[in-house]
Specification:
By secondary structure, this protein is mainly beta. A three-stranded antiparallel β-sheet has the order 1-2-3. Strands 7-6-11 form a three-stranded antiparallel β-sheet, with no helix packed on it.
Amino acid sequence: MNNNCPKCNSEFTYLDQDHMVCSQCFNEWSTVEEIVETDTIEKVLDANGNELIDGDSVIVMKDLPVKGAPKPLKAGTKVKNIRLTDGDHNISCKIDGFGAMNLKSEFVRKA
């Protein structure tokens, strides 16, 4: 978050309750607008378009090959207590018989 003064661009600013104050030009501005602008969290959707959240359970929709495993992850496998992450594989989970792994949300549906 940039705390420089929007009026004089001074870096000598400080927080006073719910607003910022510039010690050079004494300009005051609210920090609430900056928080709202930067607090954009991208939604993660399953294959059917349902929004996923941390702690959800999902079902794998097709057989998925697992690198280093002798068998694929079968369609219909239920995965409990998922965690959402950033990146291409946006679901982090632990699957019985496979261990910890990351999945793409496009290959699962909400249980």
